[in-house]
Design goal:
Length: 405
């Protein structure tokens, strides 16, 4: 039988395979909801109380989170190489323990020095336990058939911010920020850890490769593809990270009242889930690169809507922007898999994570002077123009079968 062709001896075998992939996507989706919600989305809840406790300004307190993203980026390529050799389940399990340790260190920190130590530990944990590791785990288990499971992971985890911003806001008044961190560490160890241990299978044995053969893209064409992907994702995540910090004042700057701005901003999350749901339901009927380009263009189109002014235009922007971000998150897992194949997939994800995390860490600070100097509409239009430029990096890409479909 030709390589890569799956044979089913009984019709039920196909159903069991589909069920297994669905279960894997659901389990890792819950894992990512917990891991993202209790690390990446943590500063929004605890930064203010921590500033009051330490008597520090917001810059050094939030700077620790930016530092953790740089740590994550520095570790990502090595983590990817390890996952390629051993599979992703072990990395996910270790990440949960490391993130719980980091949360405990934060909970007991008396000041900024230990606070930064805790975020350094969490940064190491995030390099082993967020989307790239989950995507690599699925890629190692399912190969080129991992796309639907990757979409399922992002679909479930799209609720991470909503769940944990709500949960954190409810608990912090009862537990204080230190108690909240210890509660999160407990959830990591008592829920997240056993779930991954029991329900995520280990990767099958892999033939040993020498380091030169598995070090990454080996041809000039592959290196060019990697640079184009890195440029696209880094530019888009820079824009997204910059807007995430300044979105409320910018929306009020285009004429919305404070309650309207909050309501419109709240639609970005559902927009992300809607984009992922569309990808999950109709995505298999449309070729991958066309989907990626259309999804990337939704953000510039949404920015143009703001020219019309008013809450309805802003609502359209929020939904299109959210949908674009949701589809882009899926593309971060599916595009490298389609363009490079499953061999060395985790390592490729690790290298792509470096510019993305660097962009995420630096965007809020670098964008602040621009946001302060320009009218809000011009900021949105400039971001839309930059997102349109990012689409250009996707245009030269072709799938290995010779087409772009």
């Amino acid at each position: 039988m030709p390589a890569g062709v799956v044979s089913y001896d009984h019709p039920l075998d196909a159903w069991r395979m589909v069920s297994s992939r669905f279960r894997l996507g659901a389990v890792l989706g819950i894992n990512q909801t917990l891991s993202w919600g209790m690390t990446f989305y943590l500063p929004a809840i605890i930064a203010g109380p921590v500033e009051a406790t330490f008597g520090a300004s917001g810059f050094p307190v939030l700077g620790a989170f930016s530092w953790s993203l740089l740590v994550t980026g520095a570790c990502a390529p090595r983590v990817g190489a390890w996952i390629d050799r051993h599979g992703g389940r072990g990395a996910l399990l270790v990440s949960i323990v490391v993130m719980a340790i980091g949360q405990a260190v934060l909970a007991f920190s008396p000041g900024l020095v230990v606070w930064y130590l805790g975020w350094t530990i969490i940064g190491v944990g995030m390099s082993m336990g967020l989307y790239d590791a989950a995507f690599a785990t699925v890629g190692g288990l399912l190969g080129k058939d991992a796309g639907p499971s990757i979409t399922g992971i992002t679909l479930v985890a799209g609720f991470a911010s909503t769940v944990f911003w709500t949960l954190g806001a409810a608990l912090i008044g009862v537990l204080d920020w230190r108690g909240l961190l210890l509660a999160y560490a407990g959830l990591m160890l008592l829920v997240n850890l056993p779930m991954v241990w029991l329900l995520v299978p280990p990767a099958p044995p892999r033939p040993r490769q020498d380091s030169a053969a598995g070090s990454g893209p080996r041809s000039a064409a592959q290196r060019r593809i990697l640079v184009l992907l890195a440029a696209f994702f880094a530019l888009r995540w820079f824009i997204t990270s910059a807007l995430a910090v300044h979105i409320l004042p910018l929306l009020m700057g285009v004429g919305l009242t404070a309650p309207e701005a909050v309501g419109v901003a709240a639609l970005i999350g559902p927009g992300q889930v809607a984009g992922r749901l569309i990808e999950y339901t109709i995505g298999p009927r449309i070729n991958l690169l066309v989907k990626a380009r259309i999804g990337a263009l939704l953000f510039p189109l949404g920015a143009l809507l703001l020219w019309l002014g008013g809450p309805f235009a802003a609502t359209g922007f929020a939904l299109l922007y959210g949908m674009s971000n949701g589809i882009m998150t899926i593309n971060r897992g599916t595009l490298p898999l389609a363009l490079f194949g499953p061999e060395g997939y985790a390592r490729i994800l690790g290298w792509l994570a470096v510019p993305v995390l660097l962009a995420q860490a630096t965007a809020p600070s670098l964008a602040a002077p621009l946001v302060g100097a320009l009218p809000a509409l011009e900021v949105f239009l400039l971001c839309g123009a930059a997102a349109a430029v990012a689409v250009l990096f996707l245009l030269p890409l072709r799938l290995p079968n010779g087409g772009d479909a």
